[in-house]
Specification:
The protein has 500 residues and is of the alpha/beta class. Helix content is 46%, strand content 13%. Helix 15 runs parallel beside helix 16.
Length: 500
């Protein structure tokens, strides 16, 4: 008896007999409706384009009909045949085909339904195209194309396709927009602090800004040593620490206070950033944490290690996500922000700092143009994800050449696009930093005067609102503890207990 196993016939690959999804019948029905009544075009023009049709002749008919209607002319079988020319459509001429489309169309009532069916089938074909491209590229990838780059490109294409799939955009009634504004005001009234935006944790700043507003691009700028990154990390932690969410009737989780925070740390590692936040929360200077110079002495009442572990434990529970990848492009940042929003949720995004991002083009011969692309993309991303983006920026050295070192909008480095695209520009300024560097000789009158100025400036910082598109500009004083890099509310005289 033979032990040979009989071979079964191998089925042909699915790609050999599967056709891309399409509905020529829906396309014919829609085109016929447009030809008998051009008002049908108005029902689909917001989301449907010629490229969404599967048949070449249908793409051409829709394209030319759209051009005529937008020009205020009539699109009919008679006016269209001039533009389409003669063609053999299975034994039918172009003129006959147009006449048949119009003759078989009966109503425009279902025009939008046909349009949506055509659109959704086009999205499916695009999905197939992206999937096929991913497979083919993975099989025959160039040597200089890392898998991570291909993944990011695929994610970008899928996200763009997902955004295109939202065809419920366009004009909305003013009454609907007004209702949204009232809802926002009501939510602000119910929220702690009565803010319309997300609270930064700095009371006086929140009072002037109303918190961080959705879709705003906020720039925190300053010279080195002013505490730009510290301010960003302080605000980021305050928002994440205050996060509260609530389940909605449809099953979605909605943030009702604070927020989920994403932090792109292009300069410091995640460990360095975490050390800063732990120092700020525990009150133990970061240099002591790094050196291990920590005191835990019950007799002396010093419990630094316990404070550090408590702060670290607290950090484990908050929704703060850090991306420490250095030298990424704006396209990669956008892709990763979208991914975080989709996978974990995202309410506020921080970027530290702007000048360390690169443009999407590998050529960087024009830095001004490159920075313009970066700020424009960040503003577009803030609007797309409907959340505030806080980006840290360096200031030019021209600040140091002035007697008054307080920064101005003209000091924003390398591009006017930062000022143009930003909704809010915050400058961080510490008089104490500059006073330290010009200490006079001891025993002189100048030294006595300097000591008085140092005492006045010690532990204080100014946050200057240089630009606010929807609010006032001005200055807010805050407390700054340099050894633990912590910004906090400044105690005002009226808030202090009465002196006896």
């Amino acid at each position: 008896m033979s032990n040979a196993v009989a071979l079964k016939p191998v089925a042909p690959p699915a790609s050999e007999y599967r056709q891309a999804p399409a509905s020529p019948e829906a396309e014919q029905a829609l085109l016929g409706a447009i030809l008998i009544n051009n008002e049908a075009f108005d029902r689909v023009t917001d989301f449907l384009d010629a490229v969404h049709f599967s048949e070449e002749i249908h793409r051409r008919i829709y394209e030319h009909a759209a051009s005529l209607i937008r020009a205020g002319k009539l699109a009919s079988p008679i006016t269209l045949k001039t533009y389409l020319g003669d063609a053999d459509l299975g034994g039918v001429t172009t003129s006959q085909y147009l006449a048949r489309l119009a003759a078989e169309a009966t109503t425009i009532i279902n025009a939008e339904h046909y349009g949506r069916a055509i659109y959704e089938l086009a999205l499916r074909r695009s999905l197939i195209g992206i999937g096929t491209n991913v497979v083919n590229t993975a099989y025959d990838a160039p040597v200089d194309l890392p898998p991570k780059a291909q993944i990011e490109e695929a994610e970008k294409q899928l996200y763009e396709l997902a955004e295109l799939g939202r065809y419920e955009k366009g004009f909305i009634r003013f009454t609907d927009a007004a209702a949204r504004a009232i809802d926002m005001a009501a939510a602000a009234y119910r929220r702690d602090g009565k803010l319309s935006g997300i609270a930064t944790g700095l009371t006086d700043l929140d009072r002037m800004m109303g918190g961080l507003q959705a879709s705003d691009l906020v720039i925190i700028a300053g010279r080195p040593g002013m505490g730009k990154t510290s301010l960003a990390t302080n605000i980021g932690f305050n928002i994440a620490h205050a996060h509260r969410a609530q389940a909605q009737p449809d099953g979605r989780i909605k943030t009702i206070d604070g927020g989920i925070v994403g932090f792109f740390s292009l300069e410091m590692s995640a460990e360095q950033l975490a050390t800063r936040i732990i120092a700020e929360r525990s009150g133990v200077p970061s240099y002591k944490i790094r050196r291990g110079d920590i005191i835990e002495d019950e007799r002396r009442g010093i419990f630094e290690f316990s404070k550090i572990t408590d702060a670290a434990r607290e950090m484990q529970t908050i929704p703060l996500y850090i991306d420490e990848t250095g030298g990424i492009s704006i396209a990669q940042l956008v892709s990763r922000a979208r991914r975080l929003k989709r996978q974990r949720g995202l309410d506020v995004l921080f970027v530290d700092y702007l000048q360390l991002l690169s443009g999407s083009s590998k050529r960087s011969d024009n830095r001004v143009q490159e920075l313009t692309e970066i700020t424009t993309s960040l503003k577009a991303l803030a609007k797309e994800l409907n959340l505030p983006i806080v980006a840290v920026s360096q200031l030019s050295r021209q600040v140091e050449n002035r007697e008054d070192k307080r920064p101005q909008l003209s000091d924003l480095r390398e591009s006017g696009s930062i000022e143009q695209d930003a909704d809010v520009v915050l400058f961080v300024y510490r008089e104490e930093y500059y006073l330290k560097n010009r200490k006079p000789r001891e025993g002189t009158d100048e030294h006595l005067k300097w000591m008085g100025e140092m005492e006045q400036a010690h532990g204080k910082a100014e946050i200057i609102i240089g630009k606010q598109r929807h609010g006032p500009t001005g200055m807010v004083e805050v407390q700054f503890e340099a050894d633990i890099t912590r910004f906090s509310n400044l105690a005002h005289d009226e808030g202090l207990p009465d002196r006896i």
